[in-house]
Amino acid sequence: MTRHAVIAGAGLAGSLAAGYLARRGYSVRVFERRGDPRAAGAGEGRSINLGLSARGMRALAAAGLLDDVLARSVPMRGRVVHHPDGTTAFQPYGVAAHQILYSVLRRDLNALLVDAAETRHGVTFHFGHRLDRIDRDAPAVRVVDAATGAATEVAADLVVGADGAFSAVREQLQHGRRADLHREFLDWGYKELTIPAGADGRPRVRLDALHVWPGQAAMMVAHPNVDGSLTCTLFAPFEGEPSLATLDTPAAVRGFVRRYFPDAEALMPRLVEEFFDHPVGQLTTVRTAPWRHAGKVVLVGDACHAVYPFYGQGMNSAFEDCLVLDECLGAYPYDASRALAEYERRRRPHTDVLADLSVRNFVELRDRVHRPAYAAKAAADRMLNRLAPRAWTPLYTMVAHTTVPYADALARARRQDRILRCSAALAAAGAAIGSYAALRRRPGRR
Amino acid sequence: MTRHAVIAGAGLAGSLAAGYLARRGYSVRVFERRGDPRAAGAGEGRSINLGLSARGMRALAAAGLLDDVLARSVPMRGRVVHHPDGTTAFQPYGVAAHQILYSVLRRDLNALLVDAAETRHGVTFHFGHRLDRIDRDAPAVRVVDAATGAATEVAADLVVGADGAFSAVREQLQHGRRADLHREFLDWGYKELTIPAGADGRPRVRLDALHVWPGQAAMMVAHPNVDGSLTCTLFAPFEGEPSLATLDTPAAVRGFVRRYFPDAEALMPRLVEEFFDHPVGQLTTVRTAPWRHAGKVVLVGDACHAVYPFYGQGMNSAFEDCLVLDECLGAYPYDASRALAEYERRRRPHTDVLADLSVRNFVELRDRVHRPAYAAKAAADRMLNRLAPRAWTPLYTMVAHTTVPYADALARARRQDRILRCSAALAAAGAAIGSYAALRRRPGRR
């Protein structure tokens, strides 16, 4: 007997989950409030580019999609830090050759995932359909066609909420239950901007890296695109001086960029138009529990753990959810309740840690990247990693270039930090003992 | 021109706010989903009794209602702690005669507040009416009469959300905005039970105190009632062994009470019936921001800061909200936007601290009340307070018996704790120096 799944949301997590579920024999209907991501102009002007890293790659490989995705992406071998004085410094991501991230446009990747899922037997996508009600016990959903207003009841065996940080599935799943929800917004927003390719069609900056302009008043990152352009995301406080609220004239925008990202102004010929054309994006963190109801309703991606983009792990962790959910459904094929419980048990502690790490990385990018202590710690980390790559792996490397679960990575990084501090303390103590011994041996006491 | 206010919720905060707003010249319509609290049997079986303390009393006094309320309440001069071995100990609340709490039944108090508000010109209550939609910009609400299904649009100048921890007003006020929401549930629930008056009509335990059975596996509190009975609230984990989940037979319930509250079994002749008749209550903490929209929509009480009941401050802080909101509306009579901003500024930092204190007091009641260190600290606090009542006030005293804002009370308590610790350290250092001096003077070295 065919089992039926309904997925709310045809974003990255929803469309990848559709393919996985189809492979497990589910007939899958995906409902998405927005239009088809394959249509022209979809999602433009408000989407941080994505850096695909080890976790996301593993999940795409398991779905047989990795090669297709890599063909549309640009490898990033490290980070170019742009300093306020206009100088730049290249920091490789890791010491090993495979420690590479891949930059991909959200809409390209989304279109690819929808295409791939649609080729599977029994998968249909319904764009422009809003979820109106979810009966978590049936389970069943009522969807409304935005164009006609017609409502349809759809029964299923499994409902997957891949409907983002403001998930309607989560709302219904948790309604009236002892459900924890922690949702907070960063007081910084963002604008998408572009560094187009030069007039000669060649990139204006090196294309094999993520570009970062850290800073306390504002920061910017730029991801390379296959056409030689880069998509920039400018982050700044919503309010205060200077802030997104005060950047209300072309002169203000130009002056701001000139002051905080002096080398970037010349790279962005359409800066002012784009700044005023594009909406301001918001950044939110969501931690919540439970993620599931019996064996019937389950959440993936931002719906259960939205994170700030500063660790580049939002998509990667959402893909990892899909993979782990698939593994759990495979492990308990006749006990969906147990499968979903196991999925939440395996994922939630780790994505909660990821949320913390992503907040921390915002603070680090804003306040610490320029400081000597940060550089010293990073250098020590890199040196130890080079000397003993198995025994010593910096936290960033574990998060971005391995699939060690997030909480385990953090625990290991803390152990390493303690060792580093103890070594420093031992060295200091050794020096002190040495001085004391020298004092005791001073001539007058002999 | 008369200004119109709509209040969502006719609970304690909503009905007190109705009176305040009427006094400021508003015409007030209060909509409440549930039935009239003055009807027979309203709200039975799931309401922790309330301990009225200084903050609540000040707000009631300002509304001219304090005497009426005190006439229906029972003074509590301290806490009777019931130990697991069946012994009891009385701890007075404070050293001053006015340091008294007043126990009052929620439904009695609610009925009194509704009655009092209704006598004011322009106040109407509409029970059995559900808020269906809120237009925060108009502002206006759509209410549905639960009995007939008829919907009415009601326009207003000010909408007050006094609709509890799951506030619909909050939802609409914050929808699509950068609103922080932290909501979590305690993994313990509660059952309401009764210690009836004895056959001779006299109380079975002393009536001028709050009775507390602390404990790690379960705890219980009992508030006195004017009829000589006490309303008990038994708190226990939802799951595990033992827990509310495993108390599924009369024998299990009796065995549980006998084991953890040995002296209480004989006091509760209807224990088993009540245990199975009454629903399990849940306990939730809500921290959120913002509390307001322009000068149009504002939240009070649980809607903006639900707290656990373990500090006895839920109602008191809600009443304080109403008083501060009234003061702010009075201070800026022609600028509601500024009034609401000022209200949030004055209240939110303090209620966030109260949420923390209430969590802490749960842990304290559960884990520490029995420990010698706790008793020693409490004794030191009491002694110093007796010696220097102005300079030294224990945290509990400041929270319950003064109207010092919560965050200020906490800051002062921390300073006091530092002094206490420093004094102990100085004393220890003094003793050490003394020993060292004694050593130096020992005969062999002379």
UniProtKB/TrEMBL annotation, chains A, B:
Protein's UniProt keywords contain Zinc: no
FAD-binding domain span: 5-354
Catalytic activity: L-kynurenine + NADPH + O2 + H(+) = 3-hydroxy-L-kynurenine + NADP(+) + H2O
Pathway: Cofactor biosynthesis; NAD(+) biosynthesis; quinolinate from L-kynurenine: step 1/3
InterPro entries documented for this protein: FAD-bd, FAD/NAD-bd_sf, Kynurenine_monooxygenase
One Pfam family in the UniProt entry: FAD_binding_3
Keywords per UniProt: FAD, Flavoprotein, Monooxygenase, NADP, Oxidoreductase, Pyridine nucleotide biosynthesis
Enzyme Commission number: 1.14.13.9
GO BP of this protein: anthranilate metabolic process; kynurenine metabolic process; L-tryptophan catabolic process; NAD+ biosynthetic process; quinolinate biosynthetic process
GO molecular function: FAD binding; kynurenine 3-monooxygenase activity
Coiled-coil blocks: none
GTP-binding among keywords: no
Gene3D superfamilies hit by this protein: FAD/NAD(P)-binding domain (3.50.50.60)
Cofactor(s) essential for the protein: FAD
Record function comment: Catalyzes the hydroxylation of L-kynurenine (L-Kyn) to form 3-hydroxy-L-kynurenine (L-3OHKyn). Required for synthesis of quinolinic acid.
Family: Belongs to the aromatic-ring hydroxylase family. KMO subfamily.
Name assigned to this protein: Kynurenine 3-monooxygenase
Gene: kmo
